Amino acid sequence: MTSGTKSYIRALLQRGIREDNRKMDEYRKITVEYGVSAKSAEGSARVKIGETEVVAGVKMEVGDPFPDKPDEGTIMVNAELLPLSSPEFESGPPDVESIELSRVVDRGIRESKTIDFKKLCIKPGEKVWLLFIDIYPINDDGNLFDAAALAAFAALRDAKFPAYDEETGKVKYSEKTDKPVPLECMPMACTVLKIGDKFIIDPSTREEEAADARLTLVSTDHTNLCAMQKGGTHPFVSEDINHMAELSLRKAEELRKLFK
Q1: Domain-embedded: residue 8
Q2: Are 155 and 77 in contact (CB under 8 A)?
Protein backbone atom coordinates (compact mmCIF):
# COMPACT_ATOMS: atom_id res chain seq x y z
CA MET A 1 0.00 0.00 0.00
CA THR A 2 1.30 3.45 -0.92
CA SER A 3 1.69 6.10 1.78
CA GLY A 4 -0.89 8.21 -0.05
CA THR A 5 -3.54 5.46 0.07
CA LYS A 6 -2.80 4.79 3.72
CA SER A 7 -3.14 8.49 4.54
CA TYR A 8 -6.41 8.64 2.59
CA ILE A 9 -7.96 5.73 4.56
CA ARG A 10 -6.82 7.19 7.86
CA ALA A 11 -8.13 10.63 6.95
CA LEU A 12 -11.54 9.15 6.09
CA LEU A 13 -11.69 7.34 9.42
CA GLN A 14 -10.90 10.54 11.30
CA ARG A 15 -14.08 11.90 9.75
CA GLY A 16 -15.99 8.78 10.81
CA ILE A 17 -16.18 7.42 7.25
CA ARG A 18 -15.13 4.04 5.85
CA GLU A 19 -14.43 3.42 2.17
CA ASP A 20 -17.51 1.21 1.78
CA ASN A 21 -19.69 3.54 3.90
CA ARG A 22 -20.12 1.04 6.70
CA LYS A 23 -20.37 2.09 10.32
CA MET A 24 -17.24 1.66 12.43
CA ASP A 25 -18.74 -1.38 14.21
CA GLU A 26 -20.60 -2.89 11.25
CA TYR A 27 -19.91 -6.28 9.71
CA ARG A 28 -20.35 -6.89 6.02
CA LYS A 29 -23.02 -9.40 4.99
CA ILE A 30 -22.27 -12.82 6.51
CA THR A 31 -23.49 -16.13 5.08
CA VAL A 32 -22.92 -19.66 6.41
CA GLU A 33 -23.33 -22.74 4.22
CA TYR A 34 -23.08 -26.30 5.57
CA GLY A 35 -22.07 -29.60 3.96
CA VAL A 36 -19.99 -28.12 1.14
CA SER A 37 -17.68 -31.17 1.11
CA ALA A 38 -19.95 -33.94 2.31
CA LYS A 39 -18.17 -36.72 0.40
CA SER A 40 -14.63 -36.05 1.61
CA ALA A 41 -15.15 -34.72 5.14
CA GLU A 42 -17.17 -35.63 8.21
CA GLY A 43 -18.23 -32.01 8.48
CA SER A 44 -17.71 -28.91 6.35
CA ALA A 45 -18.86 -25.34 5.93
CA ARG A 46 -18.32 -22.22 3.84
CA VAL A 47 -18.42 -18.77 5.40
CA LYS A 48 -18.52 -15.50 3.49
CA ILE A 49 -17.99 -12.11 5.09
CA GLY A 50 -18.46 -9.70 2.24
CA GLU A 51 -16.03 -10.88 -0.44
CA THR A 52 -13.91 -12.82 2.05
CA GLU A 53 -14.60 -16.54 1.69
CA VAL A 54 -13.31 -19.42 3.82
CA VAL A 55 -14.01 -23.15 3.63
CA ALA A 56 -13.39 -25.43 6.61
CA GLY A 57 -13.55 -29.21 6.87
CA VAL A 58 -13.47 -31.69 9.76
CA LYS A 59 -11.88 -35.12 9.39
CA MET A 60 -11.96 -37.75 12.11
CA GLU A 61 -9.53 -40.51 12.98
CA VAL A 62 -9.13 -42.96 15.83
CA GLY A 63 -5.74 -42.89 17.50
CA ASP A 64 -3.82 -43.16 20.75
CA PRO A 65 -4.38 -40.59 23.51
CA PHE A 66 -1.59 -38.43 24.91
CA PRO A 67 0.08 -40.10 27.92
CA ASP A 68 -0.88 -37.24 30.26
CA LYS A 69 -4.52 -37.29 29.10
CA PRO A 70 -5.39 -40.96 28.62
CA ASP A 71 -9.16 -40.39 28.61
CA GLU A 72 -9.31 -37.40 26.26
CA GLY A 73 -9.39 -36.97 22.51
CA THR A 74 -8.15 -33.79 20.89
CA ILE A 75 -8.27 -31.45 17.90
CA MET A 76 -5.65 -30.32 15.43
CA VAL A 77 -6.18 -27.17 13.37
CA ASN A 78 -4.38 -26.40 10.13
CA ALA A 79 -4.81 -23.31 7.96
CA GLU A 80 -3.46 -23.16 4.43
CA LEU A 81 -3.24 -19.74 2.77
CA LEU A 82 -3.81 -20.56 -0.88
CA PRO A 83 -2.22 -18.31 -3.53
CA LEU A 84 -5.56 -18.25 -5.38
CA SER A 85 -7.10 -16.35 -2.46
CA SER A 86 -4.63 -13.45 -2.44
CA PRO A 87 -1.59 -12.26 -4.41
CA GLU A 88 0.13 -11.84 -1.02
CA PHE A 89 0.12 -15.60 -0.35
CA GLU A 90 2.70 -17.99 -1.77
CA SER A 91 2.70 -21.77 -2.08
CA GLY A 92 5.06 -23.77 0.09
CA PRO A 93 5.51 -24.60 3.78
CA PRO A 94 3.25 -22.84 6.31
CA ASP A 95 4.37 -19.27 6.96
CA VAL A 96 3.91 -17.07 10.02
CA GLU A 97 0.48 -15.86 8.90
CA SER A 98 -0.98 -19.34 8.34
CA ILE A 99 0.46 -20.59 11.63
CA GLU A 100 -1.03 -17.63 13.50
CA LEU A 101 -4.42 -18.14 11.86
CA SER A 102 -4.55 -21.83 12.81
CA ARG A 103 -3.40 -21.14 16.37
CA VAL A 104 -6.00 -18.44 16.93
CA VAL A 105 -8.79 -20.77 15.80
CA ASP A 106 -7.34 -23.68 17.81
CA ARG A 107 -6.96 -21.59 20.96
CA GLY A 108 -10.49 -20.23 20.70
CA ILE A 109 -11.97 -23.74 20.57
CA ARG A 110 -9.76 -25.12 23.35
CA GLU A 111 -9.92 -22.24 25.81
CA SER A 112 -13.68 -21.85 25.45
CA LYS A 113 -14.12 -25.56 26.26
CA THR A 114 -16.28 -25.85 23.15
CA ILE A 115 -15.60 -29.60 22.99
CA ASP A 116 -15.58 -31.88 26.00
CA PHE A 117 -12.51 -33.89 25.02
CA LYS A 118 -13.46 -36.64 27.47
CA LYS A 119 -16.48 -37.38 25.30
CA LEU A 120 -14.06 -38.18 22.46
CA CYS A 121 -12.64 -41.10 24.44
CA ILE A 122 -13.44 -44.58 23.13
CA LYS A 123 -11.35 -46.63 25.59
CA PRO A 124 -9.22 -44.87 28.23
CA GLY A 125 -5.52 -45.21 27.64
CA GLU A 126 -6.05 -46.94 24.30
CA LYS A 127 -8.31 -45.28 21.71
CA VAL A 128 -9.73 -41.79 21.28
CA TRP A 129 -11.18 -39.69 18.48
CA LEU A 130 -8.86 -37.15 16.86
CA LEU A 131 -10.54 -34.25 15.05
CA PHE A 132 -8.61 -32.52 12.28
CA ILE A 133 -9.92 -29.10 11.29
CA ASP A 134 -8.60 -27.81 7.97
CA ILE A 135 -9.13 -24.19 6.97
CA TYR A 136 -8.83 -22.92 3.39
CA PRO A 137 -9.35 -19.25 2.50
CA ILE A 138 -10.79 -19.08 -1.01
CA ASN A 139 -10.73 -15.29 -1.23
CA ASP A 140 -9.12 -12.81 1.15
CA ASP A 141 -10.77 -9.41 1.30
CA GLY A 142 -9.90 -8.85 4.94
CA ASN A 143 -10.79 -10.27 8.36
CA LEU A 144 -9.66 -13.85 7.82
CA PHE A 145 -9.49 -14.44 11.58
CA ASP A 146 -13.22 -14.00 12.13
CA ALA A 147 -14.16 -15.82 8.92
CA ALA A 148 -11.89 -18.79 9.72
CA ALA A 149 -13.20 -19.07 13.28
CA LEU A 150 -16.81 -18.98 12.06
CA ALA A 151 -16.09 -21.58 9.36
CA ALA A 152 -14.35 -23.92 11.81
CA PHE A 153 -17.24 -23.74 14.28
CA ALA A 154 -19.81 -24.24 11.52
CA ALA A 155 -17.91 -27.29 10.24
CA LEU A 156 -17.89 -28.76 13.76
CA ARG A 157 -21.64 -28.21 14.00
CA ASP A 158 -22.07 -29.99 10.67
CA ALA A 159 -19.83 -32.95 11.56
CA LYS A 160 -21.14 -36.45 12.27
CA PHE A 161 -19.04 -39.35 13.51
CA PRO A 162 -18.42 -42.20 11.07
CA ALA A 163 -19.13 -45.75 12.19
CA TYR A 164 -16.42 -47.40 14.27
CA ASP A 165 -15.91 -51.14 14.72
CA GLU A 166 -14.44 -51.67 18.18
CA GLU A 167 -13.60 -55.31 17.46
CA THR A 168 -11.43 -54.57 14.42
CA GLY A 169 -10.45 -51.04 15.45
CA LYS A 170 -11.36 -49.73 12.00
CA VAL A 171 -13.31 -46.60 11.11
CA LYS A 172 -15.98 -47.11 8.44
CA TYR A 173 -15.93 -43.75 6.69
CA SER A 174 -18.58 -44.84 4.21
CA GLU A 175 -21.07 -45.26 7.07
CA LYS A 176 -22.08 -41.99 8.71
CA THR A 177 -23.86 -42.07 12.06
CA ASP A 178 -26.23 -39.46 13.51
CA LYS A 179 -23.83 -38.73 16.38
CA PRO A 180 -22.72 -35.08 16.34
CA VAL A 181 -19.56 -33.59 17.82
CA PRO A 182 -20.30 -32.83 21.52
CA LEU A 183 -20.31 -29.02 21.49
CA GLU A 184 -20.70 -27.33 24.87
CA CYS A 185 -20.88 -23.67 23.79
CA MET A 186 -20.61 -21.26 20.86
CA PRO A 187 -17.26 -19.45 20.86
CA MET A 188 -17.17 -16.36 18.67
CA ALA A 189 -14.06 -14.53 17.50
CA CYS A 190 -14.27 -10.80 16.86
CA THR A 191 -11.31 -8.83 15.54
CA VAL A 192 -11.01 -5.14 16.36
CA LEU A 193 -8.61 -2.94 14.41
CA LYS A 194 -7.09 0.28 15.69
CA ILE A 195 -6.21 2.94 13.14
CA GLY A 196 -5.09 6.18 14.73
CA ASP A 197 -7.57 6.73 17.55
CA LYS A 198 -10.39 4.88 15.77
CA PHE A 199 -11.56 1.29 16.33
CA ILE A 200 -13.24 -0.68 13.55
CA ILE A 201 -14.86 -4.09 13.13
CA ASP A 202 -14.53 -6.44 10.14
CA PRO A 203 -11.67 -4.67 8.33
CA SER A 204 -11.10 -4.89 4.60
CA THR A 205 -7.63 -5.74 3.30
CA ARG A 206 -6.95 -2.05 2.66
CA GLU A 207 -7.96 -1.18 6.22
CA GLU A 208 -5.75 -3.97 7.55
CA GLU A 209 -2.78 -2.59 5.65
CA ALA A 210 -3.43 0.88 7.09
CA ALA A 211 -3.85 -0.36 10.67
CA ASP A 212 -1.64 0.33 13.66
CA ALA A 213 -2.59 -2.85 15.51
CA ARG A 214 -5.36 -5.42 15.90
CA LEU A 215 -6.81 -7.56 18.64
CA THR A 216 -8.78 -10.75 18.07
CA LEU A 217 -10.92 -11.68 21.07
CA VAL A 218 -12.82 -14.96 21.54
CA SER A 219 -15.77 -15.15 23.92
CA THR A 220 -18.25 -17.78 25.05
CA ASP A 221 -22.05 -17.71 25.20
CA HIS A 222 -21.84 -16.29 28.71
CA THR A 223 -19.85 -13.25 27.52
CA ASN A 224 -16.65 -14.54 29.08
CA LEU A 225 -13.46 -13.73 27.22
CA CYS A 226 -11.38 -16.88 26.83
CA ALA A 227 -8.64 -16.01 24.30
CA MET A 228 -6.93 -13.00 22.75
CA GLN A 229 -4.35 -12.50 20.01
CA LYS A 230 -2.65 -9.19 19.28
CA GLY A 231 -1.16 -8.25 15.93
CA GLY A 232 0.75 -5.19 14.77
CA THR A 233 3.65 -3.28 16.28
CA HIS A 234 1.80 -0.45 18.04
CA PRO A 235 1.04 -0.93 21.76
CA PHE A 236 -2.33 -0.74 23.47
CA VAL A 237 -3.09 1.05 26.71
CA SER A 238 -5.54 -0.47 29.19
CA GLU A 239 -8.35 1.83 28.01
CA ASP A 240 -7.89 0.53 24.45
CA ILE A 241 -8.17 -3.09 25.54
CA ASN A 242 -11.24 -2.42 27.70
CA HIS A 243 -12.97 -0.66 24.82
CA MET A 244 -12.05 -3.40 22.33
CA ALA A 245 -13.25 -6.09 24.72
CA GLU A 246 -16.62 -4.40 25.21
CA LEU A 247 -16.99 -3.94 21.46
CA SER A 248 -16.08 -7.55 20.67
CA LEU A 249 -18.48 -8.97 23.27
CA ARG A 250 -21.34 -6.94 21.83
CA LYS A 251 -20.60 -7.97 18.25
CA ALA A 252 -20.10 -11.63 19.25
CA GLU A 253 -23.75 -11.74 20.30
CA GLU A 254 -24.71 -10.67 16.79
CA LEU A 255 -22.54 -13.42 15.31
CA ARG A 256 -24.19 -16.06 17.48
CA LYS A 257 -27.54 -15.24 15.91
CA LEU A 258 -26.18 -16.83 12.72
CA PHE A 259 -26.29 -20.21 14.51
CA LYS A 260 -29.57 -19.96 16.42
Answers
A1: no
A2: no
Using only C-alpha atoms, the chain has a radius of gyration, in whole angstroms, of: 19
User: What is the torsional sign of CA 109, 114, 118, 123?
Assistant: negative
Which pairing describes strands 213-219 and 198-201: parallel, antiparallel, or unpaired?
unpaired
Tens-place pLDDT, residues 213-256: 999 999 998 889 999 999 998 999 999 999 999 999 999 999 99
One-letter identity of residue 185:
C
Decide if 99 contacts 117 (C-beta within 8 A). Answer: no
Answer yes or no: are the C-beta atoms of 195 and 9 closer than 8 Å. Answer: yes
The answer to whether 139 touches 83, Cβ cutoff 8 Å, is no
- State how far the Cα of 34 lies from the Cα of 42, in Å rounded to an integer: 11
Q: Are the C-beta atoms of residues 223 and 186 closer than 8 Å to each other? A: no
Q: Which residues pair with 231 in a beta bridge?
A: 214
SS3 state of residue 169: coil
Domain membership flag for residue 49: yes
Helix (H) or strand (E) holding 251: helix 238-256
Q: Output the domain CATH number for residue 92.
A: 3.30.230.70
pTM of the model: 0.94
Q: State which residues form the domain around 243.
A: 13-259
Q: CA nearest 108: which of 249, 260, 250, 219?
A: 219
For residue 19, being part of any structural domain is answered with yes
Residue pair 182/194 in contact (Cβ under 8 Å)? The answer is: no
State how far the Cα of 195 lies from the Cα of 209, in Å rounded to an integer. 10
